[in-house]
Specification:
By secondary structure, this protein is an alpha/beta fold. Helices cover 50% and strands 11% of the residues. It contains 18 helices and 8 strands. It has helices at 9-19, 66-73, 85-95, 105-110, 120-128, 148-159, 161-174, 178-195, 212-232, 236-239, 242-251, 256-260, 268-272, 274-285, 302-321, 326-329, 332-342, 356-370, and strands at residues 4-6, 24-32, 40-48, 51-55, 78-81, 102-104, 374-378, 387-391. A 6-stranded mixed beta sheet has the order 1-4-3-2-5-6, sandwiched between helices. The protein is flat, with a radius of gyration of 25 Å.
Length: 394
């Protein structure tokens, strides 16, 4: 494999000058996320103008990568990635901008009948009948020097991005789904941007059923944990685990001795932070009732949960028949949310399946099922699409 290996600021500047003149830029990154608050960027692989390039962000003479991200964000080209969430985050955190005209081939594949989310190797095999390298899957990308085998393994992730892009754009065009794809990419990028500023305390596992006061404790502890993790550059779980946050929220005590007695709180770092943890809990305990967090969704009867599970199976069959990845269209929870919304339960804003292209595909269909205008029938039990929708007989 022929490629350019960039390890100096001068090489990077020359490369960026040439990159700025290209129409399509494919890129990928290697990063390590297990040990730091934010993922640590270790390598950038680029495919543009039939040239493969690898940039080493950890090389001593490389300097800042700002120019590279600015070139990606500049108008006048399309940027191609696979499963590009972290790549988008690196760009947003470095320069506050998105790469120009971002195309994620993983999302594109889900809109033309592939699985979602599909790995790069699976797409390579299905669309181009090629195999991805597998020899360096356990590489620690922070260590230097990297061997030629490691660099070639990393570059393999961009080597076929352009033919994959071309194939998927043809399929999207043939199915009339280019507008769907553009909408999906806009929503994906908006969600990633929002995630960088959105408080994540509602994602703590085990908080379902907690009282508003206990939820306030979870919120305050997560705010403290997030700030501490960023200050110390550690994953949040290394500062305070979710299960301990939930246990503290249930006990609703700011007494240091009672907090210290909880199994799992004996770690030295937690002992040093005990008073700050107590202060966070006390802050939540002192909040007026009107400032306590409320559940984002109303209670949903169990019958709706059952209906959601049942109709999601029918939705899967429908998606397969339409060459759509069911997991990209919606989960059983999304189906439940739509049913709850139509029947006056759940969230007050329209759920995902009632908006955009998803409403075209399934929203109206589920409305007709709920109204008794459609029925579901089993055709061939051994078929890939055993369920069909028919006009209900009255």
């Amino acid at each position: 494999m022929s490629y350019v290996h960039i390890t100096s600021a001068r090489q990077l500047s020359q490369f960026c000058d040439a990159l700025a003149q290209t129409d399509v830029i494919g890129f990928d990154t290697e990063f390590v996320s297990e040990h730091t608050y934010r993922s640590q960027l270790c390598l950038i692989q680029v495919c543009a103008s039939d040239q493969l390039t690898v940039i080493d962000p950890l090389a001593q003479g490389i300097g800042p990568l700002t120019r590279f991200w600015e070139v990606l964000a500049a108008a006048g080209h399309q940027t191609v990635v696979h499963a590009g969430r972290e790549e988008l985050v690196f760009s947003l955190l470095t320069i506050g901008k998105r790469p120009a005209e971002l195309m994620d081939i993983q999302i594109a594949a889900g809109l033309v009948g592939g699985e979602y989310p599909a790995g790069y190797g699976a797409l390579l095999n299905r669309l181009l009948n090629k195999s991805a390298q597998k020899g360096e899957t356990r590489t620690d990308w922070r260590k230097r020097p990297l061997s030629h085998a490691q660099l070639e393994y990393a570059l393999d992730d961009v080597r076929y991005l352009m033919p994959l892009r071309d194939k998927l754009l043809d399929k999207l065009g043939a199915l009339g789904r280019l507008e769907w794809f553009e909408a999906e990419m806009a929503a994906f990028q908006g969600d990633v941007e929002a995630s960088l500023t959105r408080e994540r305390w509602r994602r703590v596992s085990g908080i379902s059923g907690l009282s508003p006061r206990s939820m306030a404790i979870v919120r305050e502890l997560c705010r403290w944990r997030d700030g501490e993790a960023e200050r110390r550059d550690l994953p949040t779980r290394f500062v305070l685990r979710d299960d301990l946050i939930v246990e503290l929220a249930k006990r609703r005590s700011a007494d240091v001795q009672q907090i210290r007695a909880i199994r799992g709180m004996e770690r030295t770092e937690l002992q040093r932070s005990m008073q700050r943890i107590a202060d966070a809990i006390d802050c939540a305990l002192q909040l007026p009732d009107g400032e306590l967090p409320q559940n984002e969704r109303r209670e949903v009867p169990n019958q709706i949960n059952v209906l959601g599970q049942f109709l999601s199976t029918a939705l899967t069959s429908l998606c397969r028949s339409l060459s759509l990845a069911p997991a990209l269209v919606g989960t059983p929870g999304d189906v439940r949310d739509l049913i709850a919304y139509r029947l006056g339960y759940g969230e007050r804003k329209p759920p995902a399946l009632a908006q955009g292209w998803r409403a075209e595909v399934v929203g109206g269909l589920i409305d007709d099922l709920l109204a008794g205008k459609l029925s579901i029938r089993i055709t061939d039990p051994m078929s890939d699409h055993p369920l069909v929708f028919e006009q209900a007989q009255h």
